[in-house]
Amino acid sequence: MTIKIKKQPAAESLIRIVEKRADVSLSKCYQCKKCSVGCPVAGQTESPPSEIIRRLQLGAGDELLQTDLIWTCLSCETCYARCPNEINFAAVIDALRSIALEKGVAKPEGNPPLFNRLFLNTVKTFGRAYDLQMIALFKIRTGNIMADTEKFPTMIKKGKMALLPPSGADKRKVRRIFDRLPENKGTEK
């Protein structure tokens, strides 16, 4: 597969923006590919973690913001644990996600930015994730209300989803964490 990189001027270099936001130095990466070998979603994406880093090193521009790994990354930090140079690739992905949202890059299939926002809102509100509310809001906002509804009774029976909101979390403490974030873009709207 041939990858075309549109090099950006140095003043607006994507790698510099990502390195600053993620607080990493991508020049440390020597392409050992341990991050890609350990990544649980690398096989399902067009570009594994090592390729994303290499494309940034080569001066990739905004076309990198449309890479599917940005939205399929689980942020499990397996890549970070395996990296001999301790490059926090999950932070790189978070930076790329926020840049993509700021620039209004086309949303991928399934609308992960909306799903992420709703998930964080439920955590902020209840101190923990409340799946039922999150899924209901997601279905309403995407207009895909009836999809997968046949699975709901089985999930309730097996205890995979609760009807009532979670309790026991220190909601004030969680809200303070959210309030301390300098740019709380993941929970807005």
Features:
globular; 10 helices; mainly alpha; 47% helix; single chain; 189 residues; Fumarate Reductase Iron-sulfur Protein, Chain B, domain 2
Number of domains: 2
Question: What name is given to the CATH topology of the largest domain?
Answer: Fumarate Reductase Iron-sulfur Protein, Chain B, domain 2
Helix fraction, binned, reads 40-55%
Q: Major beta sheet, specifics? A: none
Characterize the overall form: globular
Mean pLDDT: 84
Strand content: under 5%
Give helix and strand order, one letter per element, not per position.
HHHHHHHHHH
Question: What is the fourth-level CATH superfamily of the largest domain?
Answer: Alpha-helical ferredoxin
What separation lies between the terminal Cα atoms?
Answer: 38 Å
Number of helices: 10
Per CATH, the architecture of the largest domain is Orthogonal Bundle
CATH class of the largest domain equals Mainly Alpha
Structural class: mainly alpha
- Unreliable spans are 184-189
How does the SSE layout of this entry go?
Blueprint lengths: L13 H9 L11 H5 L10 H9 L11 H4 L5 H5 L6 H14 L9 H15 L4 H12 L9 H6 L13 H10 L9
Helix pairs in contact: 1-6, 7-8, 7-10
Overview of the structural elements:
This protein is globular. It is 47% helix and 0% strand. The chain is mostly helical. The longest helix is centred in the middle third of the chain and has 15 residues, at 112-126. The protein has helices spanning 14-22, 34-38, 49-57, 69-72, 78-82, 89-102, 112-126, 131-142, 152-157, 171-180.
